[in-house]
């Protein structure tokens, strides 16, 4: 085959970014819901609704400190000012007290906020309404109310006015915000059914890779992908499972990959380009992972590999990503492909799977590529009238995290744009929301 | 004292929301920075910069699979097409291999991505450029390159081109994004100095309060504040410390409060209004907590108490919040007062301490109050041209979480607005960002 034909054949194996993303999304489905403790469910969406097992309030509750009275004894609230009146205080009720004593006409109960109002009463007169000197009376004394204009139900939380036992207080799909967690607790839901946090196994391969705590010798490189991908997984609500590093030899690699296939997603980095020691695609094959694509028209990140492993015992599936070993390439592939997969497993709505894209004005020159779209780090600045200005950050290539570490967004230049200039209208892929840029 | 005078005196003790917030912020200072494992630091801001202990790349690294060559042997990249040339392959180098062999003129090394290029070489020719049949040659063979136009440095990651040992790769203040975590790991930072997660003790008081797993008997109420406040603390990056419940008796309450004062913030709910059993302010005093304010012109949330405890042994301080027992009141006070305190302790910038406020058009009638601002749950909808429409949610009062559980924002009606109508321009306090509303 002439050189050009060979190159063409190589290129043919590559697919477009949009096609690759479509494959990933098609193969990513929400995980089976699981019952977890309410505490573990916070920040996630309910798969099953929550039905209350009690009324709220659970009984007629005093909402202020004062005196529980019979409204029939009182002057109607709509009337004009009335003379002070006296009532016998027959019982003292604190929160937690549950008296069965009935209050008769001309009597009342001294009551604290949070206590059930006793039988016979239907309103609470706040302590501020007692004539001075009688505000402190207890059972056995007489309280004088300087203005007894109160209506039935006043300062009483009526049983069931917020919700009734049997009511669906939180429908399926509700995000468990702090208020929703409080409501679930009140309604008796000690457990909730949510999509579980996907377990994401993370494996860095390459005989040159050493742990971050080591001082690398000549020829060695620290494992930066491991901590970086774990942080990215955790930030999205996944559960990173660190598998450490594996050398470029078939048996250790196969053992590590097999372990990773027990997770919902396996992120392996390194060993996916074209050389002799690219054992990774071969290892995936031997482990029974079905290849969906290998190589995407994208810079950086071209060598990315994606496949799917179906556990033989009906035990679910594992999405398998072979990410490039260079950390910047690895992160771009995470953001473009792994993030949508993880978000799908978490049951996020379709519109939120990918990072949001916006238009911006370029603040300085940037280099693109003829054959592939380029994703490069940039900083964003607010321009006139809510517009954005994208300033390219210094970037020396696919192993360079310096610019990405402080980037607000990727500057996304389409294939064919070899160079963009200051002032050009460009697309950016948002890495942080606006508030994080402050 | 005549009734009006008494009421006026009570009102005088109350302070305005803005004054209360100013007190809270004035007493909240970032916690002392702590050295934590890199993994624990993710998502937080560096207090101390990270200085690299290695170059990046750490040596001249092959960026593609192919042949490490001497550019002096090659045809200059700028020239026109050249005839194929042959080179002796003298060594095979995989990632992790660190050969000291020098490559002499007319020779080359077979090399894999990630390996150091050997002494004497300064460029990598990708495997795709080998004439078919010679692409697979190893040490001892001869490779033929069909197009030997390469420049020095081509496909080589030059030592130190991203950063040099001794360089500050992440300045103080940098947010530890996934890329920053990867960069820190590469630079040798196994630990980072960040503001620690504030420990927030959470105690629900009231003899009527039972654990969420209990079925409340007559007069009892489930502890919904505990799980709710824990969720709110965790969502902001604090570490909730659940202290459970305490009955309304001096000794158990004092013991629980003393335990809570070991935390950075103590959130106690219940027992802060005006009655006989409001042991809480008294208990705070006995425990040495300095009162800063008690009662704020706010609905719901009026009884809120705030103070500060300074540990006698120079062991730092604890901010103490007495929140109302009713869960909706408690949550409003959390969002308006506790959140800014927690964010201050976390070292967030001033402009982000409080929830963001925006203008909206009211989508339905809403009730305010003459004497206090009212915070009520509402749902937001996008209107014309990026505007917002705020729809009030049903809400029966300070114990009702039903509306708050699905609210996007608080509708904030200022004091004196007894009623607002559909179409009015109103202020809303954002509880979720836009993306969470999808």
Explained architecture:
2 copies of one chain form a homodimer. With 438 residues, chain A is of the alpha+beta class. Chain A folds into 4 domains: 3-31 and 196-352, Molybdenum Cofactor Biosythetic Enzyme, Chain A (3-Layer(aba) Sandwich); 35-51 and 170-194, no CATH class; 61-157, Beta Complex (Molybdopterin biosynthesis moeA protein, domain 3); 357-437, Beta-clip, CATH 2.40.340. Chain A is built from 8 helices and 26 strands. Chain A has helices spanning 3-13, 17-26, 38-41, 178-186, 225-236, 250-260, 279-286, 327-345, and strands at residues 34-37, 50-51, 61-62, 66-69, 85-93, 107-111, 123-126, 142-145, 156-157, 168-170, 191-194, 199-205, 209-210, 221-222, 239-246, 265-269, 290-294, 305-310, 317-323, 357-362, 366-367, 374-382, 388-392, 409-413, 419-420, 425-430. In chain A, the strands form 8 sheets. Chain A has a 6-stranded mixed β-sheet, sandwiched between helices. The longest helix of chain A is centred in the C-terminal third of the chain and has 19 residues, at 327-345. Chains A and B meet through helix 1, helix 4, strand 14, helix 5 and helix 8 of A and helix 1, helix 4, strand 14, helix 5 and helix 8 of B.
Name a few traits of the molecule.
homodimer, 438 residues, Molybdenum Cofactor Biosythetic Enzyme, Chain A, 4 domains, six-stranded mixed beta sheet, disordered N terminus
